[in-house]
Amino acid sequence: MTRHRIVTADGLARPAGFAHAVVAAPGASVYLGGQTAQGPDGSIVGETMVEQFDVAAGNVVTALRAAGAAPQDLVQLLIYVTDVAAYQSSLGAIGTLYRKHFGRHYPAIALFGVAALFDADAMIELLGTAVIPAGP
Questions:
Q1: Are strands 74-81 and 5-7 parallel, antiparallel or unpaired?
Q2: Containing domain of residue 115, as a range?
Q3: DSSP secondary-structure letter at 89?
Q4: 49 neighbors 87 (Cβ within 8 angstroms)
Q5: Are the beta carbons of 131 and 24 closer than 8 angstroms?
């Protein structure tokens, strides 16, 4: 459960798998670096969008925990992919993996199709912002 306020705006299409907006509770901000499907040795793990999403999402959670945050502290998640059609055709499997790593917490999310990522083997990169709520 998050203490951030998830906003569903009247007049917009009902969100599915994302929030229209998130009002962050007061607290400490965490700005994550972009996470790809890099394994501990620096190489990209996975040959499909689904496999790479699984690793990249796990890396996001690892970085969050290292900063003292948790998945429910995410207020924004930006997803960069080199193949939007491959992402769309894998939505069911990606949704299952999303819930594995982040639960049913859906922050403000956007998907961007890009020509390339820094690592030529990477198909996906996740960039998150979290706020660790202050107090009890």
A1: unpaired
A2: 5-133
A3: H
A4: yes
A5: yes
The predicted-structure confidence for 4-42, as pLDDT tens digits, reads as follows: 888 999 999 999 889 999 989 899 999 999 999 999 999
Tell me how many domains the chain contains.
1
Q: What is the gyration radius of the CA atoms in the chain, in angstroms?
A: 15
d(CA 8, CA 30): 24
What token pair was written down for 82? 């080199």
Strands (E), the chain: 5-7, 21-23, 27-31, 74-81, 108-113, 124-133
- Kindly report the CATH number assigned to the domain that includes residue 77: 3.30.1330.40
d(CA 55, CA 82): 16
Dist. CA 63–CA 127, nearest whole Å: 11
Residue with tokens 């594995």: 100
- Structure token pair of residue 94: 């990606």
Global confidence as pTM: 0.92
